[in-house]
Structures are given as structure tokens and as C-alpha cells.
Amino acid sequence: MPKPQKGKGKAPEKVCHPYSRKATYLAQKEIRLKKEERQNKDKATRLSCISEKLLWFQEHLDPEKTAFTKKDACDVVDRFEPELEQIELMNGIKGRQGRLHGVREAVVKQTMERERKQYEVGFEIPNIINAKNLKTFTEWTSDLKKPPNNQ
Fold it and tell me: Angle between the 102-122 and 81-91 helix axes, to the nearest 10 degrees?
């Protein structure tokens, strides 16, 4: 029976030549991993934006209504007006130096502008006009992996 080696542990990894096939393979593997990570991050960002929008719609719908008209759906789309009014009210208080919540105001205005452009082209909102789809949407548990398929 061979004796175990003492104190040597694991041998250090060999360094490969920069122009070898192994170096090319390792570089391609690293590029592929970075690309997958970037794609996963982009997908997560897109899903979080969609889920934020859907959750907002779910919170602001009237629970007693079983169906909405097109006009009701258009009224729900203007979702940042109360927040902008509140920021303007806070900035209108005399004796304050500078602008409070300036960053939030800029983000809200950018989002409103982007959504207004989308609305002109075709804004994507949940189908709350159909009673069956409205029921499915209100029962949605805000699971990102299972969004309601009634957009």
C-alpha cells in the first residue's frame, strides 16, 4: 500500500501559453459567461419594470368593478399625476432652499414622457376591459415567473 504524501497538498495549476488552444478555449468560456450574466441582468431588469407596472395597475384598480371601459383604462394610465402634485406642493412651501425630491421629480417626468410616447404608439397595459382577464389579473399573486397572460 502506498504511503500518503505529507504536506504537499494540491499541486498549483499549470500556466498555459497565451496563444495555445487551451488559452483560446478559456477566453471563449469567459466571454460566454459574461454574455450570459449580462443577458440575465437585462432580463431581470425588464421583468422588474413590467412587474412594477403590473403591480401598480393591480393596486389602483377598483375592486368592485367587474369590467372597465376604454375610457376608464385611459384614466388609469395617468398614474404619476398625484405624485407630481405632491412634489410641487412641497417645493412651493416658502422658506425652503433648493428643490426637495428633485431626483424623484426628474425620474417621474422621464417615466411620464416615455409612457406618453408609448401611449401614442400603443401603450401596453393589462386587458382590464374583458371581465375574465380582469379576474385573472386581480387574482395574480405578483409572481414574476408567472405573469398574467392578458396584457
Answer: 150
